[in-house]
Design a protein that fits this description.
The chain is mainly alpha-helical. It has helices at about 20-25, 35-40, 45-60, 60-85, 90-125, 135-155. It starts with 18 loop residues before the first helix and ends with a helix.
Length: about 160
């Protein structure tokens, strides 16, 4: 018969590993280029979220958190510039800025993950990567999350 101690665990049974440890070992990462393609086609926040998830799968939790935080901060700064700084008669510049951000995401997000991915490949010889198409859900989440960010920046009137 098992006894419960005051910590809520059971004596005689080992504790379960945290969910992050389970997920990082059960799901292989995507190739780094997947996040770049998501950034180009679905927007920079989509690329940042896919890079975040992929870095977590690679075991680089701190780098994943910094990547997502810097993506949101950079996008917020760009939105403030586009909404409040650029005058109305120069709005055509916004198209070029947007295209530049898409291309930058296409290049930057894969480069952030490349060393961690190479380390993962060395530590897991013969292991295959996850199908990049399965990242589309995270990409769509990033695309849908970009709209509330735009509305938030526009409503705050920084």
């Amino acid at each position: 018969m098992m006894e419960l101690d005051f910590g809520g665990s059971t004596k005689g049974l080992g504790s379960a590993p945290p969910i992050e440890a389970v997920l990082s070992w059960t799901k292989p990462p995507w190739k780094p280029r997947v996040s770049g393609r998501m950034a180009f086609w679905l927007g920079p926040l989509a690329g940042g979220i896919v890079a975040f998830v992929n870095l977590r799968r690679l075991g680089a939790r701190r780098k994943a958190n910094l990547t997502l935080l810097s993506t949101v901060a950079t996008l917020t700064l760009v939105l403030v510039i586009l909404i409040y700084v650029i005058p109305y008669y120069l709005l055509f510049l916004g198209k070029f800025i947007g295209l530049g951000i898409e291309v930058a995401g296409f290049k930057i997000f894969p480069s952030i993950q490349s060393k961690d991915f190479e380390t993962w490949q060395v530590n897991h010889p013969g292991a295959s990567t996850a199908n990049g198409w399965k990242a589309i859900g995270w990409g769509i989440l990033g695309l849908l999350s970009f709209l509330p960010l735009i509305v938030l920046v526009a409503m705050l009137g920084v």
